[in-house]
């Protein structure tokens, strides 16, 4: 039975549980928009604290996590009813996070205090605070869950953190303002975007120490170079394609995962920021902060098929896993 909820004065319709609901955090609207990944229609929009940015979901789909950056905490929701369940401590100004493949713990980048906070999702306790570089942002976890990556915007480094000891075991210098990090599924490569540097560093992980083997650059006719600002990255499971959001250029770059050469650019909405696959990787969703919409990309055809209006200044996106 479909029921209506009243959350924070906002009436929303809670749909029956759908395996592939799409959740979009709206940074300025202070909400999360929910879309159906089959019809691309809006199911609901619910309050998500002040300045929601990073958003992720438990591997089993049981809990939805949202960084409420200006509230200095992580809000946790039921992804089927959209009800807030509880909060988690995070440290000041949480921006992005990554969850362990088991669902516990959560690794949170705290932009204002130069720490990565590790939080137990079951006990709600802080397990560790790891000092990193200045303005930590991007977070990624290796496929074997042995290493967590944090990128520090001002220090311009990717920090490699051991998930057992919580110690930094490697630092790799990249270009200016690294925003996002993404592993290939086999753990052999790491991609790190540098927003101001205008590059994506390709880091080889097959040797004893990580090393940059290539820096991918971008060029679009008629687009000023300073507008080509790499932010979000997604890599297909087979590593054949790498997609990079290029900020105010309103483009997503499509990269050959074997050669790391740019193949084409897809025109999307204004100020494309983050990206998210559907579980079958049939579609890629982009958040477009200045046009207040998301673009839907057909991954196989490598073309934009639809745009959908969401809330004010969409920032992050995550898709519920198959149940």
- Segments where pLDDT lies below 50 for 5+ residues? 1-18
* Radius of gyration of CA atoms, rounded to a whole number: 18 Å
- What would CATH call the class? Mainly Beta
Largest sheet data: 4 strands, antiparallel
In terms of DSSP E residues, the strand content is over 45%
Number of strands: 30
Give the strand order, joined by hyphens, for the main sheet: 5-4-3-30
**What is the CATH topology classification name?**
Methylamine Dehydrogenase, Chain H
Mean pLDDT: 94
Computed structural class: mainly beta
Shape: globular
Overview of the structural elements:
This protein has 323 residues and is mainly β. It has a single domain (3-319), classed as Methylamine Dehydrogenase, Chain H (7 Propeller). It has strands spanning 3-7, 10-14, 21-26, 31-36, 42-47, 52-57, 64-68, 73-77, 84-89, 94-99, 106-110, 115-119, 126-131, 136-141, 147-152, 157-162, 168-173, 178-183, 189-194, 199-204, 211-216, 233-235, 241-245, 251-256, 262-267, 272-277, 283-288, 293-298, 303-309, 314-319. The strands form 8 sheets. The protein has a 4-stranded antiparallel β-sheet with strand order 5-4-3-30, with no helix packed on it. It is globular. The two termini are 19 Å apart.
In a nutshell, what does this entry contain?
By secondary structure, the chain is an all-beta fold.
Provide the fold topology.
Blueprint: E1 3-7, E2 10-14, E3 21-26, E4 31-36, E5 42-47, E6 52-57, E7 64-68, E8 73-77, E9 84-89, E10 94-99, E11 106-110, E12 115-119, E13 126-131, E14 136-141, E15 147-152, E16 157-162, E17 168-173, E18 178-183, E19 189-194, E20 199-204, E21 211-216, E22 233-235, E23 241-245, E24 251-256, E25 262-267, E26 272-277, E27 283-288, E28 293-298, E29 303-309, E30 314-319
Antiparallel strand pairs: 1-2, 3-4, 3-30, 4-5, 6-7, 7-8, 8-9, 10-11, 11-12, 12-13, 14-15, 15-16, 16-17, 18-19, 19-20, 20-21, 22-23, 23-24, 24-25, 26-27, 27-28, 28-29
